[in-house]
Design goal:
This protein is mainly alpha-helical. Among the domains are: about 55-180 and about 210-230, no CATH class; about 250-255 and about 285-369, Serine Threonine Protein Phosphatase 5, Tetratricopeptide repeat. The chain is built from 15 helices and two strands. The chain has helices spanning about 5-10, 15-20, 40-55, 70-90, 95-110, 120-135, 140-165, 170-175, 180-185, 210-225, 235-245, 285-310, 315-325, 330-345, 350-369; strands spanning about 190-195, 200-205. A two-stranded antiparallel sheet has the order 1-2. It is globular and about 70 Å long.
Length: about 375
């Protein structure tokens, strides 16, 4: 007999108790039947949740897929432009290249003048085109240094405008009516800081990358040189289109400029209450808002097609389906979502497209009732 058994006998414990005493921490009663079930229950719960999430359900198409630009590629492009601008300062520019730069600035001055005539603009453009050939004869890299230097100056003047509210002569030379473009499209936001004179500073909606791409595209359009290496890189285009799809051109003013329906008087300023204000809104204001939203989506559809032509990886049909749904064109929207699923049945957007498709089909059936 072991020593432990001897002690048990002395205490008068039943013999069976000597061998059935539960180990420390062991479960007793009905709980012992559930021992080891927790991991299994968690696994079942996760599997059931995944199955529910994988089942398509109607979801209103709200999120437009935006192109994703490679941050490293954008950084390389910025570094290359900065290096060229420094070379232009250090080495200087040939006389023929400087003449092209002067002609470009002169065109910007005319373009920025709201009262310019078509003849004045054409004359300024002719001077630019006459300077292009001799400048390019010095080599593409020499002209790229000029553009990079002017780009650097443009970005500096935009930041000065944000801080002071002042549109300098140099900003007009390099950007033309750039400030007017910002105001027309509501691409100016009120900043937190106060500028000199007590007014609020203004913040341009686009970041430095988008500002740079806009400048490059305008520069190429004015100079008339669209070929490589003057065109923006694909990732620069992606960054620009991401901005334009989020901030559509020409519709940022909330529909101002659209005429009221025939036979209806234009709304007075008092009737144009801001969105969310108490009280009914005028039919004219509601009409302008609807027209603004329609113009916004039509613009997006155009940009979606332009982007897809540059970037085959962009989910064109999915994006078109979202915009068409917003326009109330539910049949066309459903067709676009089907086209996306035909091309990408198992892609990253497959479940989203299935959910959007079910929503579009549901709205189509509702319209037919």
């Amino acid at each position: 007999m072991s020593r432990a058994e001897s002690v048990a006998v002395k205490r008068g414990e039943p013999r069976s108790a000597r061998f059935t005493r539960a180990a420390p921490g062991a479960r007793r009663g009905w709980k012992r039947h559930l021992e080891g079930w927790e991991p299994g229950l968690v696994a079942v719960f996760i599997a059931a949740s995944a199955a529910i999430l994988a089942v398509p359900r109607p979801v209103e198409p709200a999120d437009l897929p935006l192109p994703l630009a490679d941050a490293r590629a954008l950084a390389r492009a910025r570094d290359a432009d900065a290096a060229r601008a420094r070379e232009a300062e250090r080495l200087g520019l040939d006389a023929e290249v400087r003449e092209l730069g002067s002609a470009f600035r002169a065109f910007g001055v005319v373009d920025a003048d709201a009262d310019h005539t078509e003849a004045e603009l054409l004359a300024a453009r002719k001077r630019v085109l006459a300077a292009v050939g001799p400048a390019l004869a010095q080599g593409d890299e020499a002209v790229l240094r000029l553009r990079a230097y002017q780009l650097s100056s443009f970005l500096r003047e935009v930041r000065r405008f944000e801080a002071t509210g002042e549109e300098t002569d140099e900003l007009r030379e390099l950007g033309g009516n750039f400030v007017g473009l910002l105001r027309r499209n509501a691409w100016l936001e009120e900043g937190k800081a106060k500028r000199r004179g007590g007014g609020a500073a203004r913040r341009v909606s686009m970041d430095g990358t988008v500002l740079g791409v806009l400048f490059k595209k305008r520069w190429s359009a004015v100079v008339g040189v669209q070929r490589a290496p003057f065109g923006p890189a694909l990732d620069e285009e992606r960054a620009l289109f991401s901005f334009l799809l989020s901030h559509p051109l020409g519709v940022g003013a909330g529909g101002k400029g659209f005429a009221a329906p025939a036979g209806e008087e234009p709304a007075s300023p008092l009737e144009d209450a801001p969105a969310g204000a108490p009280g009914p809104r005028s039919p004219a204001a509601a009409f302008r808002e609807a027209e603004a939203r329609r113009a916004e989506e039509q613009y997006r559809l155009k940009k979606i097609d332009e982007l897809a032509a540059l970037d085959p990886a962009y989910p064109k049909h999915l994006a078109r389906g979202v915009s068409l749904y917003r326009l109330g064109k539910f049949v066309q929207s459903a067709e676009a979502f089907r086209s996306h699923l035909d091309e990408h049945p198992d892609g990253a957007y497959a479940l989203r497209a299935q959910n959007y498709l079910r929503a579009a089909l549901g709205r189509t059936r509702d319209d037919q009732l």
